[in-house]
Specification:
The structure is a homodimer of 198-residue chains. With 198 residues, the first copy, chain A, is an alpha+beta fold. The first copy, chain A, has 8 helices and 8 strands; from the N terminus they run ααββββββαββααααα. Chain B binds a DNA duplex (30 and 30 nucleotides) through helix 8.
DNA sequence: CGTCTATTTGAATGTACTCAAAAGCGGTGG
DNA sequence: CCACCGCTTTTGAGTACATTCAAATAGACG
């Protein structure tokens, strides 16, 4: 039943960026659709159009790009409780997605489709600000990722991952961490071996 | 004299994302400050607080991060005519910048300080949307950069750079392109040698 | 013209990859 | 409850990509 759904986390997300009244909160919540996803199911498949912005209430997903040329996946981000995910370009332009988004655990999600989001912006323009500030935050994170990719060795990137996302390494298989760091699973194994010896 | 300044490019930038009236345009333009920068001058130095969002009317700058540990610069982006630049995090949070932004050519710029930007948002909230859409675009570009860093070899990254930013390689010294690609200048030289033989 | 910086070239080295095989681990069915 | 299967992780040998360091050459600028 809808009344059982807990919206506190998503409202906390909004209120982290803007002040909203109870009325505005109610309207916002009324636009959300609840959805579950089992481990290994896809939230989005490449070449489909991304129809929703999705908030993660519970669980963990990976956003990744498949390089068919070399038969390799490259993970852009792991996304967990409290964050939004989508293929931004596909959602905004209604073009086929270049990303896959796949559940790595059983997930509970809240979704907002394009027309609902536009209705939200038209009804309460302050939500544009909220959306901008989220993009601002993501921009900063991506920039930091780019710097790290340019400047760190495999070992340093792994240690940085452990400290930046504590606890996540227990939820995620090792070869997927390698796909996030941009190294081979074999090499990550060797890095860990070396760290264990120290 | 202020009347000589050409605002057509910056207005084109705004109107690329939102519709604005002449009145709104006039107000927006009244908030901008014109500034010139000579080649090799800094728009922003690391550890200073970034006070402005800066629009580039003419010229080219580099946003870069200095790794003092290894005495190396890592270039995040080259920014040219028609784009905005700042250290987003420093500007938003008024914290010391981690980036340098430096002119690679003589530049003509238009700047917007924090309070002017907030005044703009308060007066005409639709500018929040414009700002969001710019971040959306930058997010997409950064994502694409991350994918390329994860999946391409040095040679492939160089060829991609040439096709993504045609004409830019003539404006920028080669070792700076190397700093953007995340390879050494010597290795870029060898890549070019190899490409020339083909 | 001289100085400073950028680019090229080469040899030696290191970091990370490929391929192959073995070992470990988790879930499923008998 | 154990045996088996598939997938993940480890290990090792050989290789490729990219770096370091040093020196030579080329270009840019006052």
């Amino acid at each position: 039943m809808k009344s059982e759904i807990d919206h506190s986390l998503v409202l906390k997300n909004v209120r982290n960026y803007i002040n909203i009244t109870d009325e505005e909160a109610d309207f916002f919540v009324s636009l959300l659709t609840y959805r579950r996803l089992k481990k290994k199911q896809f939230l989005l498949q490449a070449y489909d159009v991304c129809k929703y912005e999705t908030f993660i209430v519970k669980g963990c997903l990976k956003e990744y790009f498949t390089d068919y040329e070399n038969d390799k996946d490259h993970i852009i981000r792991f996304v967990t409780e409290g964050t939004w995910t989508s293929d931004v370009e596909s959602f905004a332009k209604e073009t086929p997605s270049s990303l896959n988004i796949e559940a790595m655990e059983d997930c509970e999600l809240l979704q907002l489709d394009y027309s609902s989001l536009e209705l939200l912006f038209q009804t309460y323009p302050k939500f544009e600000r909220w959306c901008r500030l989220i993009f601002e935050k993501n921009y900063i994170e991506f920039q930091s990722r780019i710097i790290k990719n340019l400047s760190l060795s495999g070992k340093e990137k792994y240690l940085d991952f452990l400290s930046e996302y504590p606890g996540l390494s227990n939820r995620i298989p090792q070869h997927q961490i390698a796909a996030y760091l941009g190294i081979t699973p074999e090499f990550l194994s060797k890095i860990r071996q070396q760290l264990a010896r120290e």
